[in-house]
Amino acid sequence: VQLQASGGGLVQAGDSLRLSCAAFGRSLSIYTMGWFRQAPGKERDFVSAIRRSGGSTSYADSVKGRFTISRDNAKNTLYLQMSSLKPEDTAVYYCAAKGGRSKITPYYEYDYWGQGTEVTVSS
Predict the structure, then answer these.
(1) Count of CB atoms within 10 A of residue 50's CB?
(2) Which among 33, 24, 45, 31 has a CA at the least distance from the CA of 89?
C-alpha cells in the first residue's frame, strides 16, 4: 500500500486542522493505521492509531481530548482532526499502516509510511 499525507500548514495556537492520508494499492481497512509526528531534533512519536479490527482508537496523552482519528473506508482515507492546537504540536506528521497484532505505539512496528506533512503552530 502507498500512503500520501496532506493537510498540514501554518496555523495559530487554538486553531484546528485536519490531516488526511490517502491510501493507494490496497484497502486501508485491512491495516491498523497510525499517525506519528517528529519535531526537529526529536524522535518520531506516536500520536494516535485506529485498529483494523473493530476500529478502536488510541491517543498519546499529549493529544487526548484534542485530536480525533478516523477513517473512511469508502474513500480509502485516514484522517486526523486536530483542534486546540498548541505550539508544541509543531512537527512533521506521518501516517503509517501495519498488519498483525503487534503493539501500536512503536514506530518500528509499522510497515508502510506516508511522506509526511508539516504542521506549524505559532503562538
Answers:
(1) 23
(2) 45
Task: Quick: pLDDT tens for 54-84.
Answer: 789 999 999 999 999 999 999 999 999 999 9
The single-letter DSSP state of residue 107 is G
Distances in whole angstroms, Cα of residue 75 to Cα of each of 4, 64, 83, 92, 119: 13, 25, 23, 24, 23
Grid cell digits, residue 119: 504542521
Backbone φ and ψ for 96, nearest 5 degrees, come out as -150, 160
d(CA 91, CA 113): 16
3-state secondary structure of 87: helix
Sign of the CA dihedral running 92, 60, 28, 83: negative
What's the Rg (C-alpha) of the chain? Answer: 13
From CA 41, how far away is CA 29, in angstroms rounded? 33
Q: What is the DSSP letter of 101?
A: S
Task: Give the residue carrying C-alpha cell 519535531.
Answer: 39
